[in-house]
Amino acid sequence: VASAEIVAIGTELLLGHLIDTNSHAIAQALAGAGMDVHRHTAVGDNADRIAAVVSEALARADAVICTGGLGPTVDDMTREGIAKALGRELRLDDESLSQIRARFKRLGRAMTPNNERQAMLPAGATAIPNPDGTAPGFIVDDGTRAIIAVPGVPGEMRAMLERNVIPFLVERFHLRAVIVTRVLHTIGETESAIDTRIADLFRAGINPSIAVLAHAGQIDVKITAKAPTLGEAHSLIGQLEPQLRERLGDCVFGADGESLEKVVGDGLRARSWTLAVAESCTGGMLGEMITRVPGSSDYFLGGVVAYGDDVKAACLNVPAELIARHGAVSREACAAMAEGVKAELGSDVSLSITGIAGPDGGTPEKPVGLVYVGLARADGSVEVRTLRLVGDRELVRRRAALAALTLAWKATRAKEDGRPSATATQR
Amino acid sequence: VASAEIVAIGTELLLGHLIDTNSHAIAQALAGAGMDVHRHTAVGDNADRIAAVVSEALARADAVICTGGLGPTVDDMTREGIAKALGRELRLDDESLSQIRARFKRLGRAMTPNNERQAMLPAGATAIPNPDGTAPGFIVDDGTRAIIAVPGVPGEMRAMLERNVIPFLVERFHLRAVIVTRVLHTIGETESAIDTRIADLFRAGINPSIAVLAHAGQIDVKITAKAPTLGEAHSLIGQLEPQLRERLGDCVFGADGESLEKVVGDGLRARSWTLAVAESCTGGMLGEMITRVPGSSDYFLGGVVAYGDDVKAACLNVPAELIARHGAVSREACAAMAEGVKAELGSDVSLSITGIAGPDGGTPEKPVGLVYVGLARADGSVEVRTLRLVGDRELVRRRAALAALTLAWKATRAKEDGRPSATATQR
Lengths: 427, 427
Hints:
Two copies of one chain form a homodimer. Chain A is α/β, with parallel strands linked by helices. The first copy, chain A, has 15 helices and 17 strands. The first copy, chain A, has helices at residues 11-14, 21-33, 47-60, 78-86, 94-107, 154-172, 191-198, 230-248, 260-271, 285-290, 309-316, 320-326, 331-345, 393-413, 422-425, and strands at 3-9, 36-43, 63-67, 90-92, 120-122, 126-128, 137-141, 146-150, 178-186, 209-215, 218-227, 252-255, 275-279, 300-306, 349-355, 370-376, 382-388. In chain A, strand 10 (209-215) and strand 11 form a beta hairpin. The longest helix of chain A has 21 residues, at 393-413. At the A-B interface, helix 2, strand 2, helix 3, helix 7 and strand 10 of A face helix 1, helix 2, strand 2, helix 3 and helix 10 of B. Strand 2 of chain A pairs antiparallel with strand 2 of chain B, so a sheet runs across the interface.
């Protein structure tokens, strides 16, 4: 299999002024085309250091894709660095120069002399035209290895990648292998628990491979298949996925681009249930997540952010006496919040969250991270879960919102209980 | 000057499944400490390739910081790769093992055997405890060069970086050259307007340098100064900052780590005003942003997410007749929502948002991106702003929430109008 390396060029990257999203985009495109990538490197705007990185990469890989450092200013040294690595001179590319001139003319701007530098390419290079900017890219192919340079401006880089670089690589290296991935999203289990369930199926470096990825409060299991055709890659995944799903059981809520809030929304719509939410420590995060989904107005009525205890009493009819006895962070308050918002907004089901997100406000009995999430069902039953969450304020809040959504997700899947009463579904 | 390299480990990076934000964060921290960084490398979860990258980096730099691949699963190979590069064995670190065990016990979860792998460190390594997760980091210092490994989970990585890694490097390499940055945050002006105001002060590559950075709905102006000591760097910034602030005028709401929601909260607290919010298209995002700030319960009472029109009528007393005449997305509805939530929750001031976030729901007269934000003041006056926002659903919603916060920020700064009435401030 042909292999490539990615070299991102720019002192801004080394100083941490920019996040390197270009290497990510190039990596995705190369993976999709079936080219192996074993290394990314970022290096500053220094001709000698660029030359060293490029030479080393060319010794390991069939193709090296460089991004950045092609602009007109004195600190854009990629052309010089690549020429040095290849032992070639820089020569003026007339066609590129006239394209740069034409662009300035079209935009009605004066062309400063430094822009001419952008038409200097290593001897023997083929220019890649840049319809979105001034700096052309280029390809140098010495018959053994290819070195490709594209600009660092993300839009210009992506356009060249798609239009020129990937088609060139596919033809030049007879790429046939296709990589297809499938991600199963799980909720409610730890990374190690997931890992234990599928450990014997594990096969890093085997095709298809399996990887376990932890996000905030959510664990993904990713299958990656490589095959000569798209059909064969999908077929490889199709053979492994059912086995994995069986092992993982009912913690899998969706696949690929599906989010928990989307899956919950689909479930609510399928059951014709409307939803309302009552939030305390999450301050609106649960509602915000639910309404990220376009079309969520089909099932989401709204909610009450009851941050202060008075609001819990006034807007959610949580008895002040209940709060006085059990506290605003309690199973009892959580249940009353869910019931209150369901009655107030007239929804079929409702979710509630109350807890201590930190960093302050914890006590020995009710420490930071103690969160209750509640679900009130159409049949009048209420379920409350107690969570002891770890992480900073943001993570505790996110995990709390995910746990509340998980309750709703399970309710939409429940076979027996959790059914709305006949009247409630007729609204 | 001592130099460092950053090595990000994870096949996910090479496949383009993840953006490497960790290298960016480490680069920022190293630049701040005055350590030169000449190269970043990303490599997959393969012990031999990790060993090769680490050996090469150690041959060039005084310190190598690795991130990722320290988890419990079989594809976490960073420990093995580093041990190989150093020619040392992996040994069980008892202290780390007992910390991992204690963590599982504290969380009331069963510890699976694969978690023990995380306590295996190269011989002679010093463990870095991980209060936020299970995998410890470690430092191996052979007297000449230092190699440091931290987890790939961003929160865990950042905590170790700040608490352990940077202090270690400062002491170990007697770091003295210091880079200090100061970021001025602005709101309500475009990037080109900001650029025009300060164009003649502009000095990329000069010390201190100035850069203009655009985020979603917010423009930052960044001053970067480099000097032998912290005092001198701060003094360089201190000479330039007042000039910049004068040019930028009253669109500067804060500096460095300050967020608009934090500044609004400080302003509310200073005025002893309480705040309530009524949100439609943002679905809870405004409340979520306000409550990101620890201690926001001092001034934030809560809110109503009035996603459905019935909720606007039932919970916010927006007359159904008003919605029928002007629509739920209208100046009139926005004003009524602000007044309604202020009355309902008994706050001093309130904010409201109603609009069309898209992608669907737009009409020729009320297109996607049309958003109204409102402020109701303690004196009974109401202000509504009409916004025509661009961007996808998420960006429209974020810009709408920022615009609402901007109204509150201006109200807390207003000299004459916007004062709460005497009764309202005595609550």
